[in-house]
Amino acid sequence: MKQGFESYHWDDEKGNPEGGVSIGKGFTISWQRGPLKVGEQKLISNGAFVEEVIGAIIDRMEYYQRGKFASDYNETAIMNLKDALKALQSRTKDRERRGVEGTHQK
């Protein structure tokens, strides 16, 4: 177990991400399994996305910042998490522009 959690990540026969799970004290994350788009058909998500988990962590850190546990360390963490989220959102916009979002295409 690293840093208080365990993760299991699975690939399909072509080496594409095929879900997984991350488990730690007080949390279990079931990751999205498979692409969200098959041809023209958009599927319903069946698991978490990294962006959603980062958003939840930002929410929790901002909660701390509104209370007696506010600190410069928390503010730095929030800033870096928001930067990570922006980078992933930029990646999504690029994939949408290229018509490959929701697929296993690069």
Compact description:
With 106 residues, this protein is an alpha+beta fold. It contains two helices and five strands. It folds into two domains: 1-48, no CATH class; 49-99.
| H-E string | EEEEEHH
Helix content: 40-55%
Q: Major beta sheet, specifics?
A: 3 strands, antiparallel
SS elements, strand count: 5
The whole-number mean of residue pLDDT values reads 94
Relative strand content: 15-25%
Structural class: alpha+beta
Q: DSSP helix count?
A: 2
- Could you give the distance between the termini? 31 Å
> pLDDT below 50 for ≥5 consecutive residues: which ranges?
none
Rg, Cα atoms, Å: 16 Å
Coarse morphology = globular
* Main β-sheet, spatial strand arrangement: 1-2-3
Describe this structure in words.
By secondary structure, the chain is of the alpha+beta class. The chain has 2 domains: 1-48, no CATH class; 49-99. It is built from 2 helices and 5 strands. The strands form 2 sheets. It has a 3-stranded antiparallel β-sheet, with no helix packed on it. Strand 2 (17-24) and strand 3 (27-31) form a beta hairpin. Helix 1 runs antiparallel to helix 2 (72-98). The longest helix has 27 residues, at 72-98. The radius of gyration is 16 Å and the shape is globular. The relative contact order is 0.11. The model has no long low-confidence stretch (mean pLDDT 94).
